[in-house]
Amino acid sequence: KHNLCFYWSLCVTVKTVLKIYMFSAATIIKLCRKVDVFSIITKLDVYPGLMVTAGLIHYILNLLHVTVHIRDVCVFLAPVFSGLTAISTYLLTRELWNQGAGLLAACFIAIVPGYISRSVAGSFDNEGIAIFALQFTYYLWVKSVKTGSVFWTIGCCLSYFYMVSAWGGYVFIINLIPLHVFALLLMQRYSRRVYIAYSTFYIVGLILSMQVPFVGFQPIRTSEHMAAAGVFALLQAYAFLQYLKDRLTRQEFQTLFFLGISLAACIVFLTVIYLTYTGRAHKLQPVCVFLLSRLHSYAKIHIPIIASVSEHQPTTWVSFFFDLHILVCTFPAGLWFCIKNINDERVFVALYAISAVYFAGVMVRLMLTLTPVVCMLSAVAFSSVFEHYMGDDTKREKPPEKAEEGLGPNIKSIVTMLMLMLLMMFAVHCTWVTSNAYSSPSVVLASYNHDGTRNILDDFREAYYWLRQNTDEHARVMSWWDYGYQIAGMANRTTLVDNNTWNNSHIALVGKAMSSNESAAYEIMRSLDVDYVLIIFGGVIGYSGDDINKFLWMVRIAEGEHPKDIRESDYFTPQGEFRVDKAGSPTLLNCLMYKMSYYRFGEITPPGFDRTRNAEIGNKDIKFKHLEEAFTSEHWLVRIYKVKSVTSGLSRIVVRFILRTSVLLFFLLFFYFLLECGEA
Amino acid sequence: MTRRSAFVAVCLLFVAALSSEVSADGLVNEDVKRTVDLSTHLAKITAEIVLSNHGQSSVQSFILAVDADLAPHMAYIGASVKGDEEEHGTLELQQTSIQGQRGEFYKVLLPSTLAAGAQLKVKTEMMFSHVLKPFPTQITQAERQLVVFQGNHYLYSPYPTRSQTTRVRLASKTVESYTKLGNPSKTDEIIEYGPFRDVAPFSEDALKIHYENNTPFLTITSITRTIEVSHWGNIAVEETIDLRHTGAILKGPFSRYDYQRQSDSGISSVKSFKTILPASAQDVYYRDEIGNISTSHLQVLDDSVEVEVRPRFPLFGGWKTHYIIGYNLPSYEYLYTLGEQYALKMRLVDHVYDDQVIDYMTVKIILPEGAKNIHVDTPYKIDRMPNQLHYTYLDTFGRPVLVATKNNLVEQHIQDFVVHYTFNKILMLQEPLLVVGAFYILFFTVIIYVRLDFAITKDPAAEVRMKVASITEQVLTLVNRRLGLYRHMDEVVNRYKQSRDTGALNSGRKTLEADHRTLTSEISSLQARLKTEGSDLAEKVGEIQKLDGQVKELVCRSCSEAERLVGGKVKKETYIESEKSLTGRRQELISRIDSLLDAL
Question: According to the CATH classification, is domain B27-211 in 2.60.40.1730?
Answer without folding.
Answer: yes
